[in-house]
């Protein structure tokens, strides 16, 4: 309302976000991360087989395996959590828009 210009909710929500594409992007992101994880794991397996006679390889695996499994858990679980949160926010936005539409009708 400064300088005689009135702002409305419609002006601020002019951009129509495509939430389905965000979820699709998240799934593509997860797939890309899983492929990277599989490639890294395959390389480590090949290196471990090649250098198994060295004692440090066995000790490195003691640390690598839990970290690798944690990375897999993070890729699978965290991205699912993000998808769930996005869907929850989408539902809240739809409820808010419906509430605004009801208020405008009154």
Walk me through what this model shows:
Keywords: Membrane, Transmembrane, Transmembrane helix. The chain crosses the membrane at residues 34-52, 58-76. The chain has 106 residues and is mostly helical. It starts with 8 loop residues before the first helix and ends with a helix. The chain is rod-shaped, with a radius of gyration of 24 Å. It is built from 3 helices and no strands. α2 (19-50) packs antiparallel against α3 (55-105). The chain has one domain (18-105).
What is the number of E strands? 0
Total individual domains: 1
Largest sheet: none
Share of residues in strands: under 5%
| Distance between the ends | 22 Å
How do the helices and strands follow one another from N- to C-terminus? HHH
Low-pLDDT regions: none
**What is the helix tally?**
3
How helical, in percent, are the residues?
over 70%
Globally, the shape reads rod-shaped
Mean pLDDT: 81
Structural Rg:
24 Å
- Helix/strand-derived class? mainly alpha
Transmembrane segments: 34-52, 58-76
Keywords: Membrane, Transmembrane, Transmembrane helix
């Amino acid at each position: 309302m400064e300088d005689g210009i009135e702002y409305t909710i419609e002006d601020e929500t002019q951009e129509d976000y495509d939430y389905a594409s965000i979820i699709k992007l998240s799934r593509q992101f997860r797939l890309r991360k899983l492929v990277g994880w599989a490639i890294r794991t395959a390389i480590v397996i090949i290196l471990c087989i090649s250098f198994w006679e060295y004692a440090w390889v066995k000790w490195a695996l003691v640390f690598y395996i839990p970290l690798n499994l944690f990375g897999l858990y993070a890729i699978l679980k965290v991205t699912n959590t993000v998808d769930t949160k996005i869907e929850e926010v989408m539902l809240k936005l739809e409820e808010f828009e419906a509430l605004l539409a009801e208020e405008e009708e009154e």
